[in-house]
């Protein structure tokens, strides 16, 4: 486990910061990339939102995997993946980052099932 922050100042939750639009787009892409990497490692966070993402300028750290699930043992967990992506899309929509969570989740899930990483 690592400390995330600068000096004695812990990194804030993503929900606690205000972003510039350009940074929001970059962070959104980082979050999606992390979701895809987790899935490639047989992990769905299961409770992802701006409450479980730490912010540092230009980067994010996803935390709190207490509800994570392994899709190898239950292929009925797609709704959890979709919910994670929906919450991320909803948060970043306030910064005019537009994306369709259904398309994103479906594409990730298809790549996962085909093992295309």
Structure notes:
It contains 3 helices and 4 strands; from the N terminus they run E-E-H-E-E-H-H. It has helices at residues 21-40, 78-93, 101-114; strands at residues 5-6, 9-10, 53-56, 59-62. A two-stranded antiparallel ribbon has the order 1-2. A two-stranded antiparallel ribbon has the order 3-4. The chain starts with a strand and ends with a helix.
How would you summarize this macromolecular structure in one to three sentences?
By secondary structure, the chain is mainly α. The protein contains three helices and four strands. The chain is globular and about 40 Å long.
Q: Give, in spatial order, the strands making up the sheet with the most strands.
A: 1-2
Secondary structure tally, helices: 3
Structural class: mainly alpha
Mean pLDDT across all amino acids: 96
Number of domains: 1
Largest sheet: 2 strands, antiparallel
How many E strands?
4
Order of helices and strands: EEHEEHH
């Amino acid at each position: 486990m690592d400390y995330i922050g600068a000096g004695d100042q812990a990194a804030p939750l993503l929900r606690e910061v205000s972003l510039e639009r350009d940074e929001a787009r970059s962070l959104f892409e980082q979050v999606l990339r992390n979701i895809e990497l987790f899935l490639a490692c047989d992990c769905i966070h299961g409770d992802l939102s701006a409450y479980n993402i730490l912010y540092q300028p230009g980067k994010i750290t996803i935390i709190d995997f207490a509800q994570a699930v392994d899709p190898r043992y239950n292929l009925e967990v797609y709704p959890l993946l979709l919910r994670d992506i929906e919450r991320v899309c909803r948060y970043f929509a306030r910064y005019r980052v537009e994306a369709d969570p259904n398309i994103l989740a479906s594409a990730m899930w298809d790549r996962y099932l085909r093992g295309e990483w």
